[in-house]
Predict the structure.
Amino acid sequence: MFAKLVFLHGVGDGDPRGQWLTDLNHGLESAGYKGLARSETIAPRYSDLLSTDGVRASVPARTYKPSNEDDRRRKYEFQQANAARLIGTDPDIGRFGFDDLPAVVLGPGQEAVITAGILQLHQVRRYIENENLRGAILRRVLEHLPASGEIVLVGHSLGSVVAVDLLDHLPVGVTVKRFITIGSPAGSSFIHENSERLLKKFPYGIVGDWSNLYGRADIVTAGRGLGSTFPAAADHPIAVGPRHAAKAYFEHPSVAILIGEALQGSLGTDLAVRSVALEVIGSVPEQTALFALAFAHHVRRRIKDKAVAGRYELALQTVQLEMAESLRLLLANEGRPLSGAVRSLSNGAPPTLIRAWSIDEVVEVLVLCALSNLVQPYDVSTGDAPMDALRDMATELHIQPESGDRIRQAITEVKGCLGGSTGVPWSRILIGVGGVALLAAGPLGVALAAPATAYGAAAVTGALAAFGPGGMIGGLAMLSGLTSAGAAVAAGAATVTAANASVDELVADVVIRVSSARARQLLDVTPDAGAWYYLVGAETDVAAELNRLTPLSDPKSPRIADLERKREILRRLLTFMLDHGLQPAELLPAEQEPAEAGAFE
C-alpha cells in the first residue's frame, strides 16, 4: 500500500479549488516524477474554523507512547541524513536574508506583521492562543486521516504549525514516512510564548524524517529555520526570494524531490547496472573509499558491546551513503565512470573490493584505517575493535592474516614509545573517543584527494602531500570537508607546519608515518625512508620556532610549553626509529675496518 500525501494549508480561504496540487504537480514533473491524482492526496480544510468565534472543542488525547527513544532517535537520524542527502544545498540562496538581522530587531517586525493582520497571519496567533480552536482544527484534520498506514505530511505556513501539533495525536496505526514543513513560522518566539505544549517531545518512533524548507527573505519564516526550537527538524534554506505562497515552495526542486522520492521512490537514474563485460576497475578515490568502508564493517563486527555496535552500524550506514554521493559528484565532475561496487553502496552492505591489493600497497592504508575514526563525524567508542579488525581485513585481502598482526604490533610499539610521565596527555590524544580516533576524516578524506595514478602507499602519501608544505599536518584541517559533497576546502590549511599545528594533529601525523615504516620493516617489504626525513624536518621546524620565541616569551608561556611537548614527541619517535634501524640506509652505522699497518706513518 502506497503512502498518501496529506497537505495542511496555511492562512486564507483554505484553497478550495486545490491550486496547491496543480503547483505541486508542476514541481514534481519538472523534477522527473509523476504528477499526483487528487485521490492520492488528503487536504483537510479548516479555514472556516479560523474565522469563526466561539468554537469549542478539546484538544485530542496524545496517542504516541515513548519507548526506547534512544534507539528510535538513532534510526531517525540515519533517515534524516538520507533525506538531506537527496537535496543537498541550494546554490542559489542569495546573500540577503532576514536571518542577517538580530532577533531583537526582527522579532518585533515579524510580530507587527502578524498583529496588523497582514497576510492574515493573525490566524496563526489565534490558533496558538485559543485552545478550543486548536482542538477543533486538530479534530477536523484527524477526521480525514486513515486509521492506519503511511502518510507523507506536508504543512505550509500555519499548516506547518498544525502539522507539528498533530504529530503526537495521530491514529495509533498511522506513521509519517516523511514530514515536510515549508514557509513555517513555528520557530518564532511568539508561537511558544502562550503555549504550554507544542510537541515538547518528538515522536521519533513514528516519523521517518523531518525537513523544514524556508526562504531567507520570507518574512513569515523570519529567514530562520526550526532547528533551534525543534531539534528533530533539519533546516534547508532554499531560493524562493521574498515569496511565501505554497506555489513558490512546491515548484522548488528540493521540495518536489523530497515529496516525489517519498511517494514514488528513487528515480533510479544512477542505479542502472552495466554488463560485466563493460565493468571497469574503479578510480583511486573509489578503491580507497571501498577499502576503508570494508575495514569499518570489520570494526563493527569486532565491537563486543551490542548497543555500541548498533550505534556504530547506523553511523557507518550514514557515512557510507555520504561517501557514495561524494564519489558520484567527484567523478561526474571529472567525467569518469562509477564502478558497480560504488553504485551498490546505498544498500548498506559491506562493499566488494574489485581489485587486488599487494602487501606492499596495503601497509599504509591499513595503518590509516586502524588509527582513524571511520564514522566521522560520529564518535563511537570502539575499544580494541579497529586493532582486532586488522587480521580480518588481511584475510579479506587474501594476504597472510599474520600480516595484520605485524601491523598491530607496529602501532602498539609506536604508541608505547610515547608513554611515560612527560606531561603530554597521551591517553586523550591516542585513545580518545572512538578508539584510536586520530584523524578527523580518516581514509575517506584521503580517498577523495588521492592522485589519479597511485594506489596503496603512493595514494595515501601522495594525497597527503597534495595538501601543501604542511604535508599531512597541513591537510588535516581540510580532510573533514572533503568527506562532504560539495564542501569547500579550508583556506590557508596548506601552510600549516609542525610548529603551529595542534598537538593532536602532530601526533596523528607522526604516529601514522612511523607505524607504517615499522610495519614495513616487520613485514619485510619495501622500506620507507621518507618518514625519517619528515620527522627530522618537523623537529627542525619546532626547534627553530622555540629558538625564535624563547628569548622574548614568558618562562611559563603556553606557546613555549606546547612547542616543548611537540619537540619531545618528535625526539622520542626519532629515538624509536634509531633503536629499530628505521633510519635511511645511508645513515646506518658502517662496520669499521681495521686500519692498515703504516697507514699513518
Q: What stands out?
A: The two ends are 104 Å apart (CA to CA). The mean pLDDT is 78. Strands lie at 4-8, 41-42, 148-156, 173-182, 210-214, 234-237. DSSP finds 23 helices and six strands in the chain.
